[in-house]
Structures are given as structure tokens and as C-alpha cells.
Amino acid sequence: MKIEVKDNNVEQALRVLKRKLQREGFFKVIKMKSNYEKPSEKKKRIKTENIKRVKKLLKLKNRI
Question: What total number of domains does the chain contain?
């Protein structure tokens, strides 16, 4: 990942970097890996995430 600093504006470059990292899900991964997650909890979390994703896709599909 490459971020260009224009006109020595480091603050703007940091904002762009944070936005890109957030879109990629970097912060979510770091938060998840900060604590140990039991395998059973991991399976349960993945299952609920998949259910939410499918419901969201169906909801969007029904709109069209």
C-alpha cells in the first residue's frame, strides 16, 4: 500500500491511510486477534456472520 504525501500535508495522508485500512478490514482483524477466541466461539461467530451476509444479500436482491 502506498500513500503519497502532497505539499507536506502529513495529517491528510494519515487520514487517507486510516480510511484505506478501515475499508480493508485491518482494524477488525487486529481487534479480533488481540484476544484468544475458542474454536467453538469462532465457529459460532463465523456462522452468524454468514447468516447476516446472506440476509443482507437477499434484502438487496429483493429491492431490485
Answer: 2
The x, y and z cell numbers of residue 27, run together, are: 482494524
CA 63 to chain centroid, in Å, comes to 25
| Whether residues 29 and 42 fall in one domain | no
**Domain encompassing residue 26:** 1-33
Do residues 18 and 1 lie in contact, with contact meaning Cβ atoms separated by under 8 Å? no
Render pLDDT for 28-55 as a digit per residue (tens, 0 to 9).
999 989 999 999 999 999 999 999 999 9
- For the entire predicted model, the pTM comes to 0.60
Cell triple for residue 1?
500500500
29 and 48 together in one domain: no
> What is the 8-class DSSP label of residue 35?
S
